[in-house]
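Figure-free illustration: sequence to structure, shown twice.
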Amino acid sequence: MSGSFNAIVAEEIDGKTRGSLKQLNLSDLPEEGVLIDISYSSLNYKDGLAVSGKGRICRKLPMVCGIDLAGTVAESSDSRFKVGDKVLVNGYELSEKYWGGYSQKQRVNPDFIVPLPEGLSLKETMAIGTAGYTAMLSIMALKKQGVTPEQGEILVTGAGGGVGSIAIAILSELGFDVVASTGRPELHEYLKRLGASSFIDRSELSEKGAPLAAERWAGVVDSVGSQTLANAIAQTKRDGCVAACGLAGGIDLPATVFPFILRGVTLCGIDSVMAPMALRLEAWKQLARDLPKERLAEITRTEPMTSIPELADQLIAGGIRGRVIVDVNA
């Protein structure tokens, strides 16, 4: 097989790392067991960091960016997958150690591959992408800790982003009363359509608060980190659960042990990158079941791969709402 194809490749130029559109050949791809003709990828916060060079995501260069991909098996040396199978890959250090999904073709370790979940199309899986998959892992953690709709409000921080938007849509569908935290009032109507029942301005959570505040949240899905996460923990009810899945606001956690030892609050870390395959398959199964298609459509827009460098900068600046599907062939 021969012929060139397009990819977004991060390289170091004049001391700065930046992703740009390049042409590759099959001979450039890594030696892995399954060749995938990619249909779609998606844009996540980590992708924004990798392509813009504003975060040290790529551990080696050159690196094909994109932590998600969905497509069709073109070649396989692994008996689990045959030519024509519809599959997806997300996480597993794509765009960090392994070449990722911003490419029309990619060779992938078969241990990373998830068969297309029943009830979802390739495009819908990338509308969900790592952001939606992370949201579902967070919700599964809350449910595992016994959080139910009857126990009270669920706080979702970073509500306008991909994780937040999909978390709101799923939690609402499951009967939870969802409070959305955002600093963009213009998103309120959009978030209401997804299922948010009320709002809290992000400034109320991003400023230093008491180490143990009045109890409010039965559970929290937090993609922000730092002071926002500390305040969310301090406001969580007795025996409540906080799922920490992001760091858009910073990597520090200026909290105390009070909520944990005086209220029994549980802090669950969500590792979407290296989650075991059994958990990964269950998350995708529940996404197919619990995420309403009409709300997924509300969250999503589709852009060509050629727009990725510009979109990456917009995402890091907080200028993108919801989810962006990347059509790698447009």
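We now fold a second protein in the same way, so the two outputs can be compared directly.
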Amino acid sequence: MKKILLLIFSFSVFTLSHAQMTVSLDSCRQMALKYNKGIQIAQLKKEKASYDSKVAATNYLPKVSLAGGYMRTGREISLLTDEQKAKLSGIGTNLVGAIQSHLPGLTPTITSIVTKYPEFSSLFTAATAKLTAFENSLNQVGSNIADAFRTDNRNMGGAAILLTQPLYMGGKIKAYDRITHYAEQLADYQLAADEQEVVLSTDQAYWQVVSLYNKKKLAENYLDMLRAMQKDVEAMVKEGFTTHANQLSVDVKVNEAEMTLTKVEDGLILSKMLLCETCGLPLDSDIMPEDAKLADINTADAAEMSNMDEALTNRSELKQLEAAINIYEEKVKIERSAFLPQIALVGGYAFYTPNVYNGFSNKIKGDWSIGVTMKVPVWNWGEGKYKVRAAKAEAAMQRLKLSDAREKIMLQVNQSSFRINEANKKLTMSLKNLEKAEENLRTAQVGFKEGVINTTETLAAQTAWLQAQSDKIDAQIDLRLSKSLYQKALGTLRP
């Protein structure tokens, strides 16, 4: 019992997952726009352009940054030479030696006095000791002075917080800001153009399925008609009312009709797969177009007249080129700004070690600063002039592209309008031909049953009826596609 229930459940799931799904043209368009990777990329480009515009707006505002660094060196910077250090360290010895050199007779005089008056020996001994002590003291003072000039700057570091406020950049900031706004518009127009392309390709896939679905029904009806005639001819051959050759002619037509039906069925399967792929559905989905019954389509479409003003106003391609022209004109200003004065306000607070704010110290000390910087190009051998001319040439190229696109769009609108009018005429003619073909088929079938019309004429009438029905389907589909193409030419094709 459990196995039976499991089989029933599995069959139900399989049936639901493969159930036929009816889709409308609008739903197919919406699914295609949602699924299409190109549309998703265009949407991301639009999002990126929006962020770029916000980035450009920040260039008007002051920028604050932090900077810092540390460096260890192998040798320290010396403010005194080795000779100067030696002189300072021996300043007492050098002073005493200088005194002795300027008083060459002092020592013999003291010696003679001590010899003549021994009682002064202790006095001169004490004076000599004090002089030696004074010499050593001066030497120590000189050494201390030499040590005081040591920098010990092998460990150097610093940190700063900086603020920069542009005051005048030659118009570059404003030009870049406007460029990002135009780029945002360009991305928006590109998205609209991509959407129209996707909608048009979806329409083509949708109506192709509708066409093949109706041709499949037509092929089935034609085959049923031939098979019915085949049975009648077989009965007539048995009764001796017709020849075997007529039966073979009918058999050949039946085989041809079966082959045609097979081709149409294969084409319908492939067309459904294409439509499923366009809409982002599984390729094996069994979809049924809502407009599969062409008889329900309103075919009384009036002739269309070209509307150039509407096309030139709505076409996204023209809007893109206009935005591109604006961008290239702003690029001319950017190239020119690079060779104009650039002024900025700068300020900040910096910390250093070692520092010289209170002598030469290894303690971390800081100070603030504020000022104005200016950069003025003086001579560049004509570089700026050439760059500006190159940018102007690019802008001129974009204007020529816009003029060329206008002419092509005008031609496209006229062609699309002509195609609609032609499709309307073909549909009217196909309906008249179908009416005649149906009457001809009815007369042939009645005459065949009465025996007054032979097999060949009856088969010809059936073939003419088949062709008239097929022409009607083609005319109806062509009219629908012509409408879509005309709307795209006007820039009004929307999901």
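Summary for the second example: The domain at 64-77+155-168+341-376 is CATH 2.20.200 (Outer membrane efflux proteins (OEP)).
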